[in-house]
Specification:
There is one protein chain. By secondary structure, the chain is α/β, with parallel strands linked by helices. It has two domains: 30 residues; 151 residues, Glutaredoxin. The protein is built from four helices and seven strands; from the N terminus they run αβββαβαβββα. Strand 1 and strand 2 form a beta hairpin. The longest helix is centred in the first third of the chain and has 24 residues. It is elongated. The relative contact order is 0.18.
């Protein structure tokens, strides 16, 4: 190969490398807004899982401790003896999940003193900004957890979404259901014996 052709190849490789670098720099996902003052940036943390045993119905729900997308601490076991809990596993790419967020908010507004709802998504960390935006836009005001590590989702058999786990006031996983429900309010009230 002569010297001119070699230089052309090197110039092309350099142009490709620089172009690739610029693509990476300018196509980075938008970072989520920082948490409120005093709260934790959950993306720098990992969930605390005291026991990695997967969920079994009619047994104690697997515990976890982490932070919400707003940087507030959340601990499943803290609700035992206080409230029933709905674990709502959802995803950005799941249209039924997105439709269910505001419907669950309506339920939360009426029964929030008796039932806590925790929305959990295991979408990648790159989607943090989109998750916060979608959740906020839905009007949901119950806690949302971005399980970007997948550690919480591994405790629960979440093969598809939406997937809801019903944990009673005693901390027992009493039911789990896959798919969008026509009258989710009636389903929740039935599982927890609410009027």
């Amino acid at each position: 190969m002569n010297q001119t052709v070699r230089r052309i190849y090197l110039a092309l490789i350099l142009i490709i490398l620089i172009g690739g670098y610029l693509l990476i720099i300018f196509n980075r996902p938008e970072a989520p807004p920082p948490p409120a003052e005093g709260n934790v940036n959950y993306l720098s943390e990992v969930p605390v899982i005291p026991d990695e045993t997967r969920m079994t119905l009619n047994e104690k729900a697997p515990d976890f401790e982490f932070f919400t997308i707003d940087g507030e601490p959340i601990h499943l076991a803290s609700y035992i003896g206080e409230k029933h809990v709905i674990l709502d596993f959802w995803s950005l790419t799941c249209a039924p999940c997105i439709r269910e967020l505001p419907v669950l908010q309506e339920f939360y507004e009426e029964y929030g003193d008796e039932v806590e709802i925790i929305a959990i998504t295991d979408d990648s960390a790159d989607n943090a900004g989109d998750i916060r935006e979608r959740f906020t836009d839905s009007g949901a005001q119950y806690p949302a957890v971005h399980d970007y590590t997948g550690m919480i989702a591994r405790l629960y058999p979440t093969r598809a979404k939406p997937y809801i786990v019903y944990v009673n006031i005693d901390g027992i996983a009493i039911a789990a259901e896959l798919g969008e429900k026509e009258d989710i309010h009636a389903v929740i009230k039935s599982h927890f014996g609410l009027e």
